[in-house]
Design a protein that fits this description.
The protein has helices at residues 2-27, 34-51, 55-59, 64-84, 88-95, 100-106, 109-122, 126-134, 136-158, 169-192, 209-251, 256-265. By secondary structure, the chain is mainly α. Helix 1 (2-27) packs antiparallel against helix 2, helix 4 crosses helix 9 (136-158) and helix 8 crosses helix 9.
């Protein structure tokens, strides 16, 4: 129960801070688009589903496949929804107190991807995974790390903060493919292991531990494939739409470089 109350408290703080800033911007005639607010609300909702009962109790029970589902919600679904709900004006008070140089470095695609993958793989090393299941403080750290990994992966793609100029649609697709291949590699380790890797799931009566592990691997690889294909379609459609708008601006007399920046950053 204390963990539930703590989770509800920080989710409420997150929603409250977002709502307060959105109201401030609305009073300044810079209202946050409804779609962005809906994305942020959906992201908070996914976090709530992953971390609160009844799903959290099920995920933290004696099935690895359920625990894997929780991890996928924290890494692949909640972060992009939360980031899609953010804008530069919304983040300005936060960015004002963060070290800009360090932030630019950690969110650079060439840094963000390996750090995120290290966090994802690290928490699936048997020693750390078993410790997270058995010890609540380690479990909390695991969840925070997985959400952070998701944020790092999706920040350059959604450009909540500006990405490098070279990181266009093609580079984003390649970046997401590398992330997908990393997840696939981890999934294959779990799928083809000949023994259960996690001691906490051995001896469970409901399902054979090795079969449970293979189901978790199949879930990870299946979810990742569907998500990657959906994002590839989205990026392709966005690139086509942006190319049309860029050409329209150029034909209207806007210099080519300025037109490209206007389309990319919505200005």
């Amino acid at each position: 129960m204390p963990e539930v109350l703590l989770t509800l408290a920080w989710l409420s703080v997150l929603v409250g801070a977002y709502g307060a800033r959105a109201r401030t911007l609305a009073r300044r005639d810079a209202a946050v688009p409804t779609m962005r607010m809906a994305c942020f609300a959906a992201g908070v909702g996914v976090l709530g589903v992953a971390l609160l009962p009844p799903f959290a109790d099920f995920a933290e029970g004696d099935l690895f496949v359920a625990h894997m589902a929780q991890h996928l919600l924290l890494v692949d679904l909640a972060p992009p929804l939360l980031l899609a709900g953010l804008t530069g004006p919304l983040l300005r008070p936060v960015l004002a107190v963060l070290p800009a140089r360090a932030l630019r470095r950690i969110t650079h695609p060439c840094v963000a991807l390996p750090v995120a993958f290290a966090l994802l793989v690290g928490w699936h090393v048997p020693l750390l995974f078993d410790a997270a299941v058995r010890q609540e403080p380690v479990h909390v750290l695991e969840h925070v790390s997985l959400v952070a990994a998701g944020m790092l992966v999706w920040l350059p793609v959604l450009e909540t903060l500006p990405a490098p100029a070279w990181f266009g649609t093609g580079a984003k697709l390649g970046y997401l493919l590398l992330w997908r291949l990393g997840q696939t590699a981890l999934g294959n380790v779990l799928l083809w292991a000949t023994v259960p890797l996690y001691a906490v799931y051995e001896g469970v009566d409901r399902i054979d531990a090795l079969e449970d592990q293979r189901l978790a691997a199949a879930l990870m690889m299946g979810e990742g494939s569907v998500l990657f294909l959906a994002l590839a379609v989205w990026l392709g459609a966005a690139a086509f739409r942006d190319a049309e708008r860029r050409q329209s601006l150029i034909e209207g007399g806007i210099e080519e470089r300025r037109a490209g920046r206007a389309v990319r950053y919505g200005r």
